[in-house]
Amino acid sequence: MNNVVPARRFGAMPWRRLPVPLLAIGMLLGGCGADEPDQAPRELTGSEVCPGGLLTADAVRALNLLTAGAAFKPPPRDVQDVSSAARALVQGFQANGESHVDAVCEARPVDSMNRHVVFVSFEIESEATRKYEHSESGQGYYWEYDLGRNALANARQARLYFDCVSTRLGGPEKSVPIAARASVGDMSSTTVDAAPREANLTIVHSAARAMAKELGCKDGGGLPERLVVKEKAAPTR
Prior knowledge:
Blueprint: H1 20-30, H2 46-49, H3 57-66, H4 82-96, E1 99-107, E2 118-124, H5 127-130, E3 143-145, E4 150-153, E5 157-165, E6 175-184, H6 194-215, E7 231-233
Antiparallel strand pairs: 1-2, 2-6, 3-4, 3-7, 4-5, 5-6
Helix pairs in contact: 3-6, 4-6
């Protein structure tokens, strides 16, 4: 006959209903290891949102003007810093004779109400495109400025064309024209106030200088260290 060992010899005790206070404490202690709720993404300042030294202090002030001094969301994963953007620009040019890099900066305010998103991109146009007479002209739709090869701006965007002689592109003797662009989402292009268009010009000048430095462009692409706004022509349309 098998002997049955009483449960109490192994320390087992009959189940008893716990007092409510003790039960509540147990539930609290048991919950300590539960997953914490996701934290809200860190908000970035104007000097942090465009990575890799893309924006100078003047350009950060211009960004804050365009976005009403907003705090910014962290950029999407596909946004590149200047170094990565330069590699992509070189690879595209070497493969196709032209190149375009969109995601270099995306400054998107946390509070989007009545605020604008600012983007920065770079492009090397094909030689065929550059043969057109107005490929770098404002064609009467932009203010034009004496900066680089040419610079165009209005309240919605600015484009800056500059020459880059670099061993990473066409070699030590060949000049390759690069276009830097800053654009502002949902901004009216008909605004005649100089402040937003010159803010765009400030951002694109800073971005172009950062790219020229990264690519090793001779003489910094011919771009001045500090922006001096010299208007050449106003829109005619």
